[in-house]
Amino acid sequence: LNAAPARPPRSRIRFLPAESAGPPELVAVRVPVLAEHRLVRGPRFTQLKIGAGHRLDVKASGVFVLGVGHGNKLLTHLYNCHLTKVYTVSGEFGKATEDFSDTGKLIEKTTFDHISREKLERILAVIQGTNHKALLMYVHSNIDMKTQEAYELAVKGLIRPMGKSPPIITAIRCLQFALPQFQLEIHCLHETQQYLRKVVHEIGLELKSSAVCTQVRRTRDGVFTLEDALLRTQWNLQSVQKAILDCQLKVKNELEKTLG
Amino acid sequence: KMAAAAWRALRAARPVAVPQRGLADPAGPPSARRLREVDEAAPVFQYVGKAAKRKDRVFVWGFCYSGALGVPSFVRPDAGWKKPRRIQATPYRLETDGKITSAACGYGFTLLSSDTTDITKVWGMGLNKDSQLGFQRSIRDRTKGYEYVLEPSPIPLPLEKPQKTRVLQVSCGRAHSLILTDSEGVFTMGNNSYGQCGRKVVEDEVYSESHLIHQLNDFDSRVVQVVCGQDHSLFRTKKGAVFACGWGADGQTGLGHYNITSVPTKLGGDIAGVNIIQVSSYGDCCLAVSDEGDLFGWGNSEYLQLASVTETTQVNVPRHLPFKIGKIKEAACGGTGNIVLTEEGSVFVWGYGILGKGPILTETAVPEMIPQSLFGWSDFSPDVRVTRVRCGLSHFAALTNRGELFVWGKNLRGCLGIGRMEDQYFPWRVTIPGEVVDVACGVDHMVSMVKSFI
């Protein structure tokens, strides 16, 4: 950053006495402002303020939003938008562990040959239904259910809790199913990755077997998708600058739409 | 000096105990090899076999004091310090002997039936003051019968071939009930003051503790559906004809007069010659659906149920209701409101009361559609459809293809089962641990037949 070409140095007009034989004359001379010179001030960037967006576990992977400098303020605004995040969660039937992931201490092993994709989808439909009901109950907690306003909100279906709330899953579906592994796509709000691992564990319990979570991968965080995310090999200045420029418009539109 | 040398020799001879670290394992995350070893050594538990069948369950909720829920501990608690439960606000599992295929809720009583070939096919619980549950012999006094039946008790039917006949469907009205069998016609019991049981009205007949169960077999073809209104009965036969008997002061018998009928008589009017595939009634209004998706109605129209075709408030001849809402698949009638389900899966309501479109819409003569998003439809799950609609006296129920149950309407004594006592102005999910297959709505209680998930 410091090696990048800096702003052209400012200059100012000074009236300096000129060398002349007779009475001293003042000549307007353009001189550079030395106070802004790199050798006087030092390098322009000594530290950068980088803030992190929604948390990502050590064992999880995926899109992780960071804000640089002014972007930290945008991060706060994005947090207040309460946008949904999309995860790809992979699980494996047959084991139950203490911390719901496959590296934890084994608690129990069960059979899973009775599980079929149809049964899994039934359980997912129930999870989606109860979470939808929880979403409606939460959003209507400060509105009287008996008003027309509550009815209009429920019909729209696009309501989101605009404040703190327990984790809510807005949509869940099965992407792949090959016993014993399965993969789910989960759209959620206010969640933690450990909560998603717990959901996988509970799905295993509902199916009268057990399941552990093998992979949690965030594929979308609000407006940022996998396409916008930088790979480990792209963690250099040019890619970061390009990414910031590309996302600026998207973020501005989303903030305007939600927060007005 | 010699002593020091001796001490040194002794110290050298004695083995010095060096602290070992052999007993405890070193701390830290277990290595992959250790994990694999533990994994292989663990026993595998089997909770459910590969060919396990899904279990059939019955859930009940609503007003308990009449005994209609079939759980005796709600009315007579088993421990002295417990208080009787007046309302069961959330679904409660009812243990049944066999698989229940048909259930019906009347006004304070319930009938459950199973299509088995065993001797016991029908169970009843709740109010029995008019012998709507048959004669339930009291244990304490063998000559008397119970007025309230607190748990599902078998109803003895006078069948000719009890081990061959199957009970297909049951239906309950205000104080009478109908049981449909596959080969022996319809059995009726209960109050007959208006001829709703299909037999001649006997003056000053005492209906409580009566052993009389009447059998009706004289129809133009086999009866395939029986429906009880408040004080009248409707029978639909295989040929598509509808027969009615009972009270007719609101025209609910549809026979062209306002008198009572004590013998099932065929209906005419706009349904003459039409193949009717479904009939519905619960209060004093009746609806019928033909195989071509047309809707016919007759009976009470004080609440604008039939106001789209006529101004009269009592319609005693079936009239075609020309609604332009699509082909109709199923209709259900309540006390003051009606609901239909079309072939595309849309739900329409009309009538009076809490119709399900918010607190503002209280009456309409023309059907209004309830938005699909209220039943769980969204861009993410666009294949959610309503598959069944049912009506109680002042509330509605809808089942979706995902196995979810939505209820709305007046929450009379907790009959909605949503855990709250307030009325519900738009469809709300009922949380039931299973996939709901069918539901029966009564005045102040509901019964649902549920399949377990696995």
From TrEMBL, chain A:
It comes from the Eukaryota. InterPro entries: PsdUridine_synth_cat_dom_sf (IPR020103), PsdUridine_synth_N (IPR002501), Trub2 (IPR039048). Pfam families: TruB_N. Residues 46-192 form the Pseudouridine synthase II N-terminal domain. GO terms for biological process: pseudouridine synthesis; RNA processing. GO terms for molecular function: pseudouridine synthase activity; RNA binding. Belongs to the pseudouridine synthase TruB family. This is TRUB2 synthase.
Automatic annotation (TrEMBL), chain B:
RCC repeats lie at residues 56-116, 120-183, 184-239, 240-292, 293-344, 345-402, 403-452. Guanine nucleotide exchange factor (GEF) for mitochondrial dynamin-related GTPase OPA1. Activates OPA1, by exchanging bound GDP for free GTP, and drives OPA1 and MFN1-dependent mitochondrial fusion. Plays an essential role in mitochondrial ribosome biogenesis. As a component of a functional protein-RNA module, consisting of RCC1L, NGRN, RPUSD3, RPUSD4, TRUB2, FASTKD2 and 16S mitochondrial ribosomal RNA (16S mt-rRNA), controls 16S mt-rRNA abundance and is required for intra-mitochondrial translation of core subunits of the oxidative phosphorylation system. SUPFAM superfamilies: RCC1/BLIP-II (SSF50985). One of its GO terms (cellular component) is mitochondrial inner membrane. InterPro entries: Mitochondrial_GEF_domain, RCC1-like_dom, RCC1/BLIP-II, Reg_chr_condens. Residues 53-335 form the RCC1-like domain. It comes from the Eukaryota. It holds the Pfam family WD40_RLD. GO terms for biological process: mitochondrial fusion; positive regulation of mitochondrial translation. Its main location: mitochondrion. The keyword Membrane applies. PANTHER family: RCC1-LIKE G EXCHANGING FACTOR-LIKE PROTEIN. Forms a regulatory protein-RNA complex, consisting of RCC1L, NGRN, RPUSD3, RPUSD4, TRUB2, FASTKD2 and 16S mt-rRNA. Interacts with 16S mt-rRNA; this interaction is direct. Interacts with OPA1; this interaction is direct. Transmembrane segments: none annotated. It comes from Odontophorus gujanensis. Keywords: Membrane, Mitochondrion, Mitochondrion inner membrane, Repeat, Transit peptide. One of its GO terms (molecular function) is guanyl-nucleotide exchange factor activity. This is RCC1-like G exchanging factor-like protein. PROSITE patterns: RCC1_3.
